[in-house]
From TrEMBL, chain A:
Residues 90-139 form the FHA domain. This is FHA domain-containing protein. Keywords: Membrane, Phosphoprotein, Transmembrane, Transmembrane helix. The lineage of its organism: Bacteria, Bacillati, Actinomycetota, Actinomycetes, Micrococcales. The keyword Phosphoprotein applies. PANTHER family: NUCLEAR INHIBITOR OF PROTEIN PHOSPHATASE-1. The chain crosses the membrane at residues 12-31. PROSITE patterns: FHA_DOMAIN. It comes from the Bacteria.
Automatic annotation (TrEMBL), chain B:
It comes from Arthrobacter cavernae. The lineage of its organism: Bacteria, Bacillati, Actinomycetota, Actinomycetes, Micrococcales. This is FtsW/RodA/SpoVE family cell cycle protein. It is a multi-pass membrane protein. It comes from the Bacteria. GO terms for biological process: cell division; regulation of cell shape. GO terms for cellular component: cell division site; plasma membrane. Coiled coil: none annotated. Keywords: Cell shape, Membrane, Transmembrane, Transmembrane helix. Pfam families: FTSW_RODA_SPOVE (PF01098). It is found in: Membrane. The chain crosses the membrane at residues 16-39, 45-65, 72-92, 104-121, 133-162, 174-197, 209-228, 234-250, 255-274, 335-361, 373-398, 410-431.
Length: 162, 464
């Protein structure tokens, strides 16, 4: 300690604090990309050059998508009923407050819910007794419903149509 | 939701650069400490510094091999914190003390275990299979210190240690990982049931008891054992973990409200029943009263000396090795934040807090980016555990909340905490690898629909 001057020690002291913050600023600046969350272009849509180098990165041409416009009951006591779809979710069940009141002994009061998310409709079972089946698969979680795929609730089968 | 559509970049070279900087911080700190004491740059210093550096680079190489896309920031932050902690613990060692070397040993063991986790586990989704085994393991780990044969008895007012040969170990530290795995596994498969089934009372929808039963059991076990072991800090940690994971899984703010209410209520009851809790609260509120300051046990001397130390440090600190942290009891473990505040000043203390903040945000980024619900919940839970530990310790030392016996992650002396936190880092790195890497289509666990979050309840439906 004797052979090192007071000045050197002070310089080292401040130098160390500076080093700590240099570390922090370099961490933050390496992650600058990640802080721009909203802008897709920045978080990384591949550039034209990257697309040329890796052809698999080019966005696949989007197939023309048809949106579901109506719900049709294709089987069961309510066969033939149609319901126009709007932006709001639909409750299916025997309860009187349901959007589509199913006159079906095998349906629960609040059986399932059909809700829009983005451009797709999802179906979700609300803990019904007999379950909801999407294309013969029992629902365990919310799943997207494609056009023309049958959804079975008790004896009722519904489909989404364009 | 941030699905990275970018070309996945490993960014391992960035990590290497940051790692060199981080090692400069750690080794620089220990050089500064040596500079101010008699033994500057002796063979010990070189030996220990090179051990730390070799371990850090080995970790880096393992990441290159096994988790190429892992977040490049997490490892450097942790190495910097750990290196700084090693230097500070060395600085506090008396001539006969071996705490510093012991901490270095534990650092190497912990890094080795963390490397082993990354090497052999490969995919965090495998852990989901061990949901209920984790619950059993947590219960076992929490009960171990009460078993007569291996219990290390009551040390410093809490019986949370076990004895393995010459070493003591705190199994509760590992239990926080296994509990997080259990919560993540259970909630990711039962989230919809908890969310949608159940009856509504007032504005709150209560889940059915059978859906929540295992969660409540897990919580009761951890809290019950911890009340027995008189470890206040860990019970706050487990409780916080429980609330946060259930909140993240269901996105219902009512859980947070209920949780805070229960913590306040539980704290009040505990302060009425347990004398050590009452002492803690009294020495928090009336810290500067002379009779509280000098009281033993349960005085506020430790906190107040720490505050004096930080006041002495001021903005830029006294310089490493030049303060008087020997006046503060447990300056190398519980009060290490006060030691940093004294010797590195407010600027240095904020740098450390900033490092923790960055670590925490990167843990959460891994949670946001990964595609499976289990990984999301696990990453959230683990990074929150680190954040809550920091809050409880730093808040306690700065007298924002009562001081409880939690360890400062990576900094404080204590092998079990170091081991547990390095394992957490290993898991976070692995989750961030799947989050940032190219989409992995192996059908290991069915990914739950994260965006199809059914947060809206059914009462919004009106007859059209």
């Amino acid at each position: 300690m004797n052979d090192i001057s007071e000045l050197t020690i002070t310089a080292l002291r401040f130098g160390f604090l500076l080093l700590l913050w240099i570390l922090i600023f370099s961490i933050v600046s390496t992650m600058r990309r990640d802080f721009m969350i909203g802008r897709k272009a920045v978080t990384g849509t591949p550039t034209a050059r990257e697309m040329r180098k890796h052809p698999e990165l080019a966005p696949a041409p989007q197939p023309v998508k048809q949106h579901a416009r109506q719900l049709v009951v294709v089987e069961g006591p309510l066969k033939g009923t149609t319901l126009a779809l709007s932006a709001s979710p639909i409750l299916l069940g025997r309860a009187q407050e349901a959007t589509l009141v199913l006159e079906d002994d095998y349906a629960s009061g609040r059986h399932a819910r059909l809700f829009p998310q983005g451009s797709r409709w999802f179906i979700e079972d609300l803990g019904s007794t007999n379950g909801t089946y999407l294309a013969d698969q029992q629902l365990t979680r919310a799943l997207p419903v494609e056009l023309g795929v049958p959804v079975r609730i008790g004896k009722t089968v519904i489909e989404l149509r364009p | 939701m941030i699905q990275s559509e970018a070309v996945p970049k490993p960014r391992r070279n960035v990590e290497l650069l940051l790692l060199v900087l981080a090692l400069a911080v750690g080794i620089g700190a220990s050089a500064m400490v040596g500079l101010n004491s008699a033994a500057a740059f002796d063979s010990d210093f070189w030996f220990q510094s090179s051990l730390l550096a070799v371990a850090a680079f080995a970790f880096h190489i393992v990441l290159r091999l096994r988790a190429k896309y892992a977040d490049p920031v997490i490892l450097p932050i942790v190495v910097a914190l750990n290196g700084l902690g090693l230097a500070l613990i060395h600085r506090m060692d008396g001539p006969a003390d071996d705490t510093g070397n012991n901490q270095l040993r534990w650092t190497l063991i912990a890094m080795a275990v963390s490397i082993a986790v990354i090497w052999f586990l490969k995919d965090h989704r495998i852990l989901r299979r061990f949901t209920f085994i984790s619950l059993a393991a947590s219960a076992l780990l929490l009960i171990l210190p009460l078993v007569p044969g291996i219990s290390a008895g009551e040390i410093l007012g809490a019986s949370v240690w076990i004895r393995i040969g010459p070493m003591t170990f705190q199994p509760g530290e590992i239990a926080k990982i296994t509990l997080a795995i259990f919560f993540a596994g259970y909630l990711s498969s039962n989230r919809d049931l908890i969310l949608l089934a159940g009856r509504k009372i007032g504005p709150i929808q209560f889940p059915r008891f059978k859906d929540l039963g295992p969660m409540i059991t897990a919580w009761l076990v951890s809290i019950g054992v911890l009340v027995f072991q008189r470890d206040l800090g860990s019970s706050v940690l487990f409780f916080g973990l429980f609330i946060v994971m259930i909140y993240v899984a269901t996105s219902r703010i009512s859980w947070v409200v209920i949780g805070l209410g229960l913590i306040l209520g539980g704290g009040f009851i505990a302060s009425q029943i347990f004398s050590h809790v009452a002492f803690r609260i009294d020495s928090w509120i009336n810290a500067f009263t002379p009779e509280v300051f000098g009281r033993s046990p349960g005085g506020s001397g430790q906190i107040v000396q720490g505050l004096f130390g930080m006041a002495d440090g001021g903005l830029v600190g006294t310089g490493l090795g030049q303060g008087r942290p020997d006046l503060v009891p447990f300056a190398n473990s519980d009060m290490i934040i006060a030691l940093i505040g004294e010797e590195l000043g407010l600027i240095g203390l904020f740098a450390v807090v900033m490092l923790y903040l960055l670590l925490f945000t990167h843990g959460f980024r891994a949670a946001l980016g990964t595609r499976d619900a289990f990984g999301k919940l696990l990453a959230c839970g683990l990074s929150f555990a680190i954040a809550l530990q920091c809050f409880v310790v730093i808040g306690g030392v700065t007298r924002l909340i009562p001081l409880t016996g939690l360890t400062t992650p990576f900094l404080a002396a204590g092998g079990s905490s170091l081991l547990a936190n390095w394992i957490i880092v290993g898991l976070l790195l692995m989750i961030s690898h799947t989050a940032r890497g190219p989409v992995d289509t192996t059908p290991l666990a069915p990914a739950a629909p994260a965006t199809a979050a059914s947060t809206a309840t059914t009462e919004a439906v009106k007859r059209q």
